[in-house]
Amino acid sequence: MRKQFLYCILACTALGTEANALNIPKTYVPKNKSMYHKEWIDFNKNGQKDVYEDPNADINARIEDLLSQMTMEEKTCQMVTLYGYQRVLKDSLPTSEWKNQLWKDGIGAIDEHLNAFRGWGVPPLKNDLVWPASNHAWALNEVQRFFIEETRLGIPVDFTNEGIRGVENYIATNFPTQLALGHSWNRDLIHKVGYITGREARLLGYTNVYAPILDVGRDQRWGRYEEVYGESPYLVAELGIEMAKGLQTDMQVASTAKHFIAYSNNKGAREGFARVDPQMSWREVENIHVYPFSRVIREAGILGVMSSYNDYDGFPIQGSYYWLTKRLRGEMGFRGYVVSDSDAVEYLYSKHKTAKDMKEAVRQSVEAGLNVRCTFRSPDSFVLPLRELVKEGGISMETIDNRVRDVLRVKFMLGLFDSPYQTDLELADKEVNSAEHQAVALQASREGLVLLKNQDNLLPLDKSKIRRIAVCGPNADEKSFALTHYGPVAVEVTTVLEGIRNQVNEGTEVVYAKGCDLVDPHWPESEIIDYPLTGDEKKGIAEAVEKVKQSDVAVMVLGGGIRTCGENKSRTSLELPGHQQELLEAVMETGKPVVLVLINGRPLSINWADKFVPAILEAWYPGSQGGRAIAEALFGDYNPGGKLTVTFPKTVGQIPFNFPAKPASQVDGGQTPGMGGNQARINGPLYPFGYGLSYTTFEYSDMQLSSSVITDHQPVTVTCKVKNTGSRAGDEVVQLYMRDVVSSVTTYEKSLRGFERVHLEPGETKEVKFELLPRDFQLLDIDKHWVVEPGMFQLMIGASSEDIRLKKGLEIRAYGRGATGETIQSDPTDFISASKNASHIIHVVDGDYSTTWTGDKGEYISFELADNTKIDHMLVTWKNAEAGSTYEIQISSGGGQFLPVQKGAVKPNADDDIRFNLTSGSDIRILITSGKAEIAEVKLPELRKE
């Protein structure tokens, strides 16, 4: 519980762009000490503890109590965002004028306040309130204090911010972009990235982070390809779940996922500010784009969703009750609040033309399910027409109350009504961008690297044999790839040139020549017209060639950057932009060994390089430590082990060309080129989904299924062994694919259904295990129902989607019927799940006290309860347990949010009748909170049976 705040007066006037010589204490203490009691805060200043001020009261009761005290003006203020300093807000700290502004009645959220980002192409903001971290946290506390101490009901504000590659701030731990993170295929790493991002955000004063991005990549020309995890909805879901869970650890911040929904497949990859009418069937939308949101909402319990500003099938998502209410809340169980993406509300009338004016756009958005409007405009532009609508009867107070409930629920869940301030200012300075966090960032920079080609084992380079190395190209000494939007904006960046200089042996000379710019003077028109080289370009290329001739090896650092990729930067071509190709060809003509390093935000059609350059390393945008990670990989101090989560087309003429794909949809006709051949177009990918090389080799063997025949209600365990057969330690990403052999509708040729990144020493063998659940075999049938159709399924394990090493068939039979009509025994585990060892959950309901399910700290087993169940106890028989092991009983009422109802110590080899207050819920969970424990049996009459 909160401790008594100490009284402290912090003298500081309202500041503009500078704050001079602030005397920031180690611990923040607010001013109005009469409000702050030992275990509660008197938000409404009435001298008594109201229900909404009581930390021990039920959260729903707190919401209703506060809502009952709010005026219409206060409610509508909770439905809008105020953009921060130098975006919309003119003041860095509260002033007396704030009492005359709209937000005198409160505000839902303040976005990007003092995070240093001022706009694309504008230098970051730097003053004493931006950095150091303690000053920043103090400043956000002061803003928070205004809303708590100076508004009638004291409702805290939700401080929102971006955070897909580290929290967006002047300084914070800088991670690679989300595309690079996806290429790690490492759930544990992504969880750590999420945790660090959320941890640093809260230490800086932010309480809501706009991440992860759950868009699935479909068209490689799209500008925001750098922001997706990949093309597989399964992979996006798996990594999105971990990112969200990491962010929301201990409710340190809310995770707001984006962009809901069907956003990432624009017509011809053209941006357009409304991104209208993605060309997709409803089935593709469900299979590809809805799937990650559905799973992340259910399994990670995210507290925020950003509604996208595209339309689908002619209906703008922002004005769609079907998408924002029926699907999002009704089907997926979302319980947080929906925030609009930029001008999504305004676009209803300015772009989509489905509303006649702003007022009608507001009405449509709120009725559809929008909770909070968020864009770079005055909050008055939304709140004032909203109030008019309420007064005119255009929107009911019931609707307003429903929208505000969701906003308040998130604020209560984040603890803003119990601990609204970040009081440990000294800790912010210690942890934000700390060495410990930097170590995780470096791991991420390394694990996102993908080795695309290594002819004759040119890599790794032998330091002892290199006396002079030429590093050339527009990305060789470039830093901007680590400072793109939606992450830290002013951190120190190690370039590839610096990384190589730091990595070579003493006495080895490293020379540098840029060679050419990232783009040419006529770009992007030069993508369709072949303009000749300018005099300066010829001179630059000649300089690079000369330095390569005098060197033992050349490292060419080419690709893209913030000029060629990013928001509103879709491309016409996937070739190397500008005259980089001419630079590469000229260097290759020297006859010297050449290594190509790509730094870019999307797959590139590097056909010539693939044919003629001996070694290619794909780095994506590898973060502030990317130069170090790349250098370590080039010289063998790190063995790259990333695999592609995207497809490299050979040409834009093949697009759409992606994974997963329907059978034969990416296969062309003839295969024989030339004058006498029958081939009419280029076939196949340059590099397929899942592809990636290593400095060592791996052998796959011994694929096993826990059962070759299961019912459509049962899980199955798949195992195999992987051995490092080379001389170097390395990582292998083992991939499990599934195909429905015969189905009522056409399904994908291969669907990713499991992956594990494993580290193996030379000669080492490890067993890899995958747990497949019934949902992994589902298809969307002709009646638009998700079903598992009985029949044969092929399970495939491989090193990529095209390099399949092992296969086995699996038969799925209809529940209750065998292959010849015999009855199959009822499966008691249909409504039980576990975070680990899912195949062992049968042991807790089989009546055999010698068999157990085992859970370590953080692992859980969940039981779905019958409808309209009220429960006050459960009988758990514990088996063996580590000393000091503890547990927590949690109950969910839907939406993925589990709240604790009882805690205790594990009683080894004993029956434990665990009692708690009578509670209604949909699911109950046993969570191991410390140590390790075995559960032999669980007696739960309330378990759902059908």
From TrEMBL:
InterPro entries: BXL, FA58C, Fn3-like, Galactose-bd-like_sf, GH, Glyco_hydro_3_C, Glyco_hydro_3_C_sf, Glyco_hydro_3_N. The keyword Transmembrane does not apply. Residues 732-801 form the Fibronectin type III-like domain. Keywords: Hydrolase, Signal. It holds the Pfam family Glyco_hydro_3_C. The keyword Oxidoreductase does not apply. One of its GO terms (molecular function) is hydrolase activity. Belongs to the glycosyl hydrolase 3 family. This is Glycoside hydrolase family 3 N-terminal domain-containing protein. It comes from Bacteroides gallinaceum.
